[in-house]
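Q: What structure does this chain adopt?
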Amino acid sequence: MDLPFELHVALRYLLAKRKQAFISVISSISTLGVTVGVMALVIALALMTGLQQELRDRIVGSNPHIYVWNTKGIDDYRAEADTLRKVPHVLGAAPAILGQGLLAASETQPVQIKGIDPVLEQQVTNLKGAITSGSIEALNTPDGEPPGILLGKDLAAKLGVTTGDSVSLTMGVTLTPAGLLPRTRRLHVVGLFSLGLLEFDSTYGFLSLEVAQRLLGKDKVDLIQLRVDDIYAAPRIAQSIPTLLGTQYVTQDWAEMNKSLFSALGLEKMAISLTIGLIVMVAALNIVASLILLVMEKHRDIAILKTMGASARSVTIIFMMQGLIIGIAGTAVGASAGYALSTVLTRYKLIKVPADVYQMSYMPFRVLPLDFALVVVGAILVCFIATIYPSRQAAKLDPVQALRYE
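A:
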């Protein structure tokens, strides 16, 4: 199958040999510029997307999707949970009591206390799957034995304890004939967990609901936690609860609680994309420069083509095709290399980062199809726009003037 006339000439110019070798070098440099720019942009977007998704997955796995408070108080948390489970799209509901205290063993550390129902908690968080030793069921200790507590692995390491050890929990003070004295209780460590978020693994301890009520002096639970079938619909579902069940219900969803974090990550993704996108712009300028040099070098050839009957449109298409070939080749290689490198970096966890800063031990890279498509289309579009001026100038070349001194 014969190539179209314009494409044939464009390829001949692009792969010039001998006296025009300089033009080929410039074209190769332009292609390399597009390749590097597209590869960098794909990797940068994959990094920011991976970071966002990894943090989101860990946050929604460690936290319920929606918190629900009842301003009238929650007298019967089982009945309240049953009521909330009937809300459309709600998959699970579980009670919780929140508090703070001090844990002491070989060291003393502050702790965020969360009282839970071990059975119902599995409906709203991934706590059971995060247990590294012991079990969540062991929180229900028999009468006469010390109450059990589940500790985050980092918190346990700070305290110097492990499963089977004992710790002292101090929560507030109590009034005695001798005055105000700390309210302290001996607890048995029945398990360790690792939810993957430093905030939880280094500061949280889980008690059974009954033990938390006794230690905190509460006769009711604080709130009901919900898990829904679509995390992105959580804000809408949270807003529907007061409408369906009454204005005494107050809700807060995971997106609202972490709004500042994900807004910052989104802004950072946009800033990095714009910054690295400038590399593609620079590569496009290289294409402009190479085409202008080619037009200057080939002015005699262009004049002969026009003399032989080639239209201005054909001349324009020749140089546009050359720029597009550079853009498409560079984009294809850069996008493929960026995708492959992102896959390798994630699979083998090659980029290690401090967990106390980023909440994860390595940088994840995830290439979204939409991001990938936008980069490819955007790069080719920029390269096409770069061809317009040189191509139009070539089409305007006057054959008489070009051949006068030849």
